[in-house]
Structures are given as C-alpha cells and as structure tokens.
Amino acid sequence: MGALGDYWRLMRAGTALARHDVVLPGAYQSRLPIPARMAGSILRLFGGAKGRPGQRLAAALEGLGPAYIKLGQFLATRPDVFGSEVAGDLSRLKDKLPPFPMKQARAALAAEFGEAEAVRLFPGLSEPVAAASLAQVHKMSLPDGDRAVKILRPGIERQLERELSAMRRAARTIEGVSSESRRLRPVAFTQTISDSMLRELDLRLEAGGADEMRAINDKTGFFNIPKVDWERTGKRVLTISWIDGTPLTQPGVLDRPGLDRKKLANDITQGFLSSAIEHGVFHADMHEGNAILTPEGRIALVDFGIIGRIGPIERRFLAEILWGFLKRDYVRIAEVHFEAGYVPASQSVGDFAQALRSIGEPLFGRPAEEVSMGRVLLQLFDYTHTFGMALRPELVLLQKTMVQVEGVARAIDPTHNIWTASEPVIESWMRRNFGPEGAMRMISENVREVTNRLKRLPEVMDRFEKSLEAEPAPPPPPERFAPWWGWFGLIGILGVAAAWAARGF
Q1: Which of 23, 28, 388, 412 could make a disulfide contact with 495, Cβ separation 3.0–4.6 Å?
Q2: Helices (H), 251-311
Q3: Per residue in 200-223, pLDDT tens?
C-alpha cells in the first residue's frame, strides 16, 4: 500500500499542476505533441485555472501541501531567474496561509505542557498573527516582555511524511531507470532535503538552532536574533522573544524614509557568509518571510527550523572558490575542486580551469544587477556532466541558501553586488587561515584528528572483522518499472521544470 500511495500522490501532484495550467500550458499548445495537447485541454476543462502563471502555480502548490509550499518559497526568492511577477505571486506562500482554530491551538498547548500548566504559562494568548505551511504564530504579553508562540499544525507530521515519501519514491524511480541521473544522486539529494524538513517538526531543535545563531550573532553583529523562552518550549511549541517590525514580504516595507538599503543588503550577504565560513553554521531558510525590518532599520531573523552545517573542508572549499572568482584565479579554483574530490582525478585541471574562466570572465565589467552568484552556480552545474562531477548532498543546503541570500539582498537593493559584498569577509578569513596563525592551528587540528582516529582503531577493526563474517543482505530491486499512474505524476513534476525554464509557463 505504501508504493500505491506514493504513486497516487505523484499522480495527484502532476494532475494538479497540469489542471492549473502550469504543466502542458495552453500558451505552448502549438509546440506540444498531440497527446500532450489533448491531455492539457482535458485537464484545463476540469481546472478552470485563472490568473497569471505565478498565481496559478501558487494555487497548485498550496493545495498540494507543505512540502510543495517549501518548493514555492524557494522559487519566490529568485525574481532574476523566474521573473519578478512570478516571484511576487509566489511570495504569499511564505506567511499568508489560513490559520487553524484557537481551540486546536489551546489543545496543542495542553497536550504539550498539561492543561493546568498551559493555563499558567500561556495567559492571554492572542489570535494567530501569522500562519505558514508547518505552524502558526501567536503573540503573548508577559510582565517581562512580549513573546511569539509558535505552534505546529495538527497532524502535520503525518502529512509531511506522506508527501516526502512520494518525492523519495520519485527519486528512486528516476535513479533506477536513468543511468545518467545517478551522477546527480537524486536519492541522496531528496533524502538530504527530506531530513532537513522532518527536523523542522521538532521545535526543540529549532529552539537550539535559534539559541546557537543568537550566540554566533553576538560575535558578528549583523542581525537581530530573538531569545528563546526555554520554560515555554517543547516538541510542538516554541516560544521566543517578540520582534517588533515588519516582514520583508509586506508591500512598501522598504520605502521607509532614510532607510539605508545598501547597508541592509550588505548585512544580509556578509552576515550569512560570516556565519557559514567562520563558524560552519548558517540559517538555511533565509527568504523574505523570515526576515523582519525592525523600527531601528536592522534585519531580524526568525524561523530557525533549518540550520545548515558545513565542516572545515567545505568551509575552506567555499572560501577559496569565492576568493578565486574575486581574484580571477581560475587555476586555483580548479585545484580546490580536485583537492576536495569534487572532480575526478582523471580529469584535467587545466581544462577545468578553462571552463571556470568561461564562467568568471563575463562577470567583470558588467553592471552589479547582472552579476549573479546564482547564475554562476547554475553554470557550474552545467559542467558537472562534462567533467564527471557528482552532486554533493552535504552542499545542497549551502547552495540553496546562497541563492536565497542573493535573492533577498537583491530585493532590498536591486543594484546589490554579492561579490563585492563578499570580499571583506572572504579576505579576512583567508588572511587568518592561510597566514602563520592559520598554519599553526591547522597543524594542531591535524594532530588531534590523527590521535582521535588512532584511539578508535581497535573498535573499527572489530567492526570490520564482524562485517566480513556476516552474510550480506541482498540489495533491494531497483524500481525500474513504475505503474503508469506513477509515471504520470513523475512526468508532471519533471514537466514543471521545463515550464519554469521558459519563464512564461
């Protein structure tokens, strides 16, 4: 029944997108094959979709559930790729969904803390002030200050798991029938995204992420981060200090007189890079709905359900790649890719450097609004096939967030140059980590790592010996042939990518 349910949900997704005239759009009628024309015409008869392409896509995603809403949130951050009209229409998916009733909110508090304790801890809880795909937020006034109380939607755990299960099955189907797709590792990619979304369902983890980001921001100072109220926080309830301000999704919020939009955009970029490169931790859901403009003209961040982490190797990789593009040192960028194992050793460093030059050189001398880090990432992706590069799941959240950060910064300041804003942060990191102090620290860390590995060697050898003695389990058969309804849904989901690429659907 699990497989049938997954294929049914995939078919439902493909049908919904087609019915809203997102896949197989009427505007492309003359370009589609005859079966696609017929299918599109029939589905549009039942859909009655109206409005602009972005409005139709938003309606389809909202009806499909939280996992698809998250997809829409990502698209809404890239007006330079998908068009400002589409991005604007999708932006309502960020924080303007219907709330669930107060009766259910109070029931959730009672279930989490007990009925008597919930009454004591949450007096005067307001009606919902914001509602998103996974939870809604209430305001509460206490003697020592106002609070924001976030409560998960009833039954959201089961709903999200069903949607993610269908997406994982789609990834397995793609990998099973297409040898070319295995290089891009769709199963690992989908699992990485799935894991991060499921972690959002335990608000204790979000509280820990918010507290960690607050500690980091105390050192960097780029953002305002709310304080966690631990007494009023549990698995399905998160309470933090209230942030006065206006979300960046609010129309006209940036038209305030005297607002330094260039500084705000620089703070977004530099704050993200400083956190990621210096500390290996970053807010991994930085869309406009999670950024609030305070009365003091600063950016406050909320919603820490997805926290990204990268290790020392990935941090060095990111810093050296950005520094190489800034200094137009394409050979060094190529060497870093080979050193990190992202490009097979059988490939040529010189040939890869030549490809990188074709990406980097067109950036120089162009207007700031045309110098996009997102486009650089897309072009790097184009070369994965040429040079046999495999998708690295541990970098998925980092790449996605870099694209989001640029989208938010450009929304604040359309002339924002993410490369220029990045330079002070990257230069400072390079100076500290590749100077004498950095060399000594690297030696110390390597010695400690070798020592730790030697301590674990007997345990590793024991496990290896047991694995040799154990009889290996047969591998599960690949899903090479999905039922026709699964393929219909899968084709529908894949088809939307082609429609987005056309930017007019």
Answers
A1: 23
A2: 261-273, 279
A3: 889 999 999 999 999 999 999 999
**Using 50, 70 and 90 to split pLDDT, how confident is the model at 30?**
very low
Q: Which residues contact 478 (CB under 8 A, 6 or more apart)?
A: 172, 175, 176
- Binned at pLDDT 50, 70 and 90, residue 139 comes out as very high
Element (H, E) at 60: helix 53-64
Give the C-alpha separation, 427 to 425, whole Å. 6
* 6 classed as catalytic: no
Whole-number Å distance between alpha carbons of 54 and 67: 18
Helices 2-19 and 484-501: crossing angle in degrees, nearest 10, is 40
Tokens of 371: 């110098």
Please report which residue ranges of 240-372 form alpha helices under DSSP H. 261-273, 279, 312-327, 330-339, 349-360
C-alpha 103/C-alpha 124 separation (Å) is 14
Q: Looking at the DSSP assignment, which residues form a beta bridge with residue 300?
A: 224, 292
Q: Which residue has the higher pLDDT, 139 or 47?
A: 139
Active site residue: 229, 285, 303, 413, which one?
A: 285
